[in-house]
Specification:
Helix 7 packs antiparallel against helix 8. This protein is of the alpha/beta class. About 2% of the residues have low confidence.
Length: 370
């Protein structure tokens, strides 16, 4: 390990979609930025339904043109009450044209999005990418320092923590979290199917949670199936043929015959919210700041908005000659992100809990709400 110290204006810790977006946005705004962190040991087989604000941000950063052709538009949203309970909501279908939109969003594989963000990052002369393990983060009054396993120490007045829910950066900033776990696990998988999806995302509401099918380009789709932990593990352990049949049954064969693709993910569900999003020279983005269940495509979209917001504030402070990692910037960041994250967390939590209860008044309220 080298003892070299290198100074930048901003350090982004973590190379997922939120971290890459923050790094690209900061660098494009004239801030000398370094992104440091190891790539995940296992590939991410999840997809993300990018909402309009996220697509706009990616367009502005020159990223969307690199991956749009590998995404699928969500022109229709369909919600089906499959709980089998006494109070059931009628089927609901939304059309993007009704509100003047081409699509509600675009579904894209996370690995494809990361590839596009990485290509854009590599093209920026103001952005340095270092794939190395982060050993520690230390914070002082006027700067932060990030120590790497093999590439020395990096320093900067602003540290952006994008290092997921077990964030070293958050811990260094002495930021607590509020965590509530659910008795649920999300099974994720992509699959091919014989019937066209017609750009329709279908969400089945079941007693264990949501079973959501989201279109991908061609006759492909992604699945997020929320189940009890033990059931999720049993289903994930099935061979391809048996799992394909189980998915056909859970989705009522709306997409015909199904053939699952390699790669399955299991993700225990929880709500995790940091007590502060910005403090002690650290701005938290993505899952370092908040984790919510995969309902309504909110999780990664919130993270991309985090990234765009801290970049916007830091660039404005830099342009005006102010401290980009100072308390004024971080307090403003906290104010701007808290309401957005808080309102969506409450909505997702209420919807998810309504599926887990047997209380008729709650079921009725959920049906009326839908």
């Amino acid at each position: 390990m080298t003892n070299d110290k290198r100074a930048f204006q901003a350090i982004v810790v973590g190379g997922g979609p939120a971290g890459l977006t923050a790094a690209v946005a900061l660098a494009e705004g004239g801030i000398a930025t370094v992104l440091a962190g190891k790539k995940p040991a296992h590939g991410d087989n999840r997809t993300t339904a990018l909402l309009a604000s996220s697509v706009t941000a990616l367009e502005t950063l020159g990223v969307w043109e690199l991956c749009r052709e590998r995404s699928a538009p969500l022109r229709f949203l369909r919600i089906v009450d499959d709980t089998g309970r006494l109070w059931r909501a009628p089927e609901v279908k939304f059309d993007a044209e009704e509100i003047g939109l081409e699509a509600f969003g675009w579904n894209i594989e996370n690995r494809v999005l990361v590839e596009a963000l990485t290509r854009r990052a590599q093209a920026l002369t103001n952005l340095t990418l270092i794939e190395d393990e982060v050993l520690g983060v230390a914070l002082a009054d006027d700067h932060g320092a990030v120590t790497l396993a093999h590439d020395g120490t990096l320093t900067a007045p602003l540290i952006v923590g994008a290092d997921n829910r077990r964030s070293l950066t958050r811990e260094a900033a002495l930021i607590d979290i509020d965590e509530r776990r659910y008795p649920q696990t999300a099974l994720t998988v992509c699959f091919r199917h014989t019937r066209p999806h017609h750009d329709t995302s279908t969400e089945f509401h079941t007693p264990s949670g949501q079973c959501t099918v989201v279109p991908l380009p061609g006759n492909r789709a992604s699945l997020v199936w929320v189940l009890g932990p033990h059931v999720a593990e049993e289903i994930a352990a099935l061979d391809d043929a048996a799992l394909s049949l189980d998915i056909e049954g859970a989705t009522h064969s709306i997409l015909g015959k199904i053939a699952v693709e390699p790669g399955r993910g299991l993700f225990p569900l929880a709500i995790v919210t940091a007590s502060r999003f910005g403090r002690n020279r650290v701005a938290l983005v993505g899952e370092a700041a908040h984790v919510i269940p995969p309902v309504g495509a909110q999780g990664l979209n919130l993270g991309l908005r985090d990234a765009a917001t801290i970049a916007e504030l830091a660039i404005a402070a830099h342009r005006d000659g102010h401290d980009i990692g100072g308390e004024l910037v971080l307090e403003r960041y906290e104010t701007m992100r808290r309401a957005d994250v808080g309102s969506r967390t409450v909505a997702v939590d209420l919807l998810n809990r309504s599926l887990l209860t047997d209380l008729l008044p709650v079921q009725g309220a959920r049906g009326l709400g839908l």
